[in-house]
Design goal:
Elements lengths: L17 H7 L7 E2 L16 H5 L7 H10 L4 E4 L2 H11 L4 E5 L4 H9 L3 E5 L4 H4 L5 E5 L11 H12 L4 E5 L21 E6 L12 E4 L2 H11 L6 H10 L3 H21 L6 E3 L3 E5 L3 H10 L2 E2 L1 E4 L2 E6 L4 H18 L3
Parallel strand pairs: 1-11, 3-4, 3-5, 5-6, 6-7
Antiparallel strand pairs: 2-8, 7-8, 9-10, 10-13, 12-13
Helix pairs in contact: 3-9, 4-5, 4-8
Length: 340
Amino acid sequence: MGSDNQLNYPLEHGGDLSKASVKYRRDESQWLDLSTGIAPWSWPIPQIPESVFASLPSNNGKLEQAAAAYYGNSSLLAVPGSQAAISHLPRFFSKCKVGVLWPSYAEHFASWQHHGHQVVALKQHEIDEQLETLRILVVVNPNNPTSQFIPLNTLLDWKHRLAKNNGFLIIDEAFIDTQPQQSFLHSGLDLNNVIVLRSLGKFFGLAGVRLGFIFAHQSILQFLQSQLGPWSVNHVAQCLGSQALLDKPWHIKQTLRLQQNARQLQQAFSKWSGLLSSDYFVWIQTKNAESIHEHFAKAGIWTRLFSQPKSIRIGLPKNKNDWKELRKAIGEIETLYHTI
């Protein structure tokens, strides 16, 4: 990319089966949905006291304490999903030039552009040559959908170079929980010109709870709090989040389960070229992406199709029956295309 042209990248997301159900005349309950990248095993929801539903969200600090312990940093603000921070962050900065890693989570590009900033989409290898021209650099690490990791020493280099021009590095770490040592927060370095986003949606499988966190300098946190207003994180999310973040045995179980199944998923697509994998999904860049997506859909398997570049993302099956369906469809596609 590396140009200032508007990115023609539709703001679509996985998980919405309504259109698929209409198009393919299949009830939503009959789909194997592998389109989201969300862990298929959720943190087990305990019984929630009635008082949580009946009273206003609490200000007792339990959620923030649990988050500080889990993430290793206390300079945080709880938000109703990291998407809320993505939507409001551009308001904090005066109009400037913003570089956004591409391909990546399209909401980042759209939000900065919506608020009038000059936004340029950059492939990872283009960032170094463009960095001195930017005020803001936004990256997703590991990236979604490509799953590629940016090493910590590279992030530190970008942080220091941006600081020379009063610039900021924004790191979306929604998929990093299975490898916490890779997190910028794990480094223990200051957040003077770094903003980190985290989410309970992916690793904890609690996307519907709408809970995330932003780690940043206090001035940014105070601004976002003023934008979001009181009670932005509902009481149920506070209750569940504070417990889930402290459940260390489950964290270990979930990490092993994700990594083991991710290896199986990678092996299932081992014959396919253009394959990159994460602990949550595989991403395949191929000219046949649309046809492959269509074949999966006709088999009752919903995947995420991307047009820029032509690619497809497939999440983790949950159980033996789901694996059986997926492997059958993979075999049919491999027979159809011979080489992928």
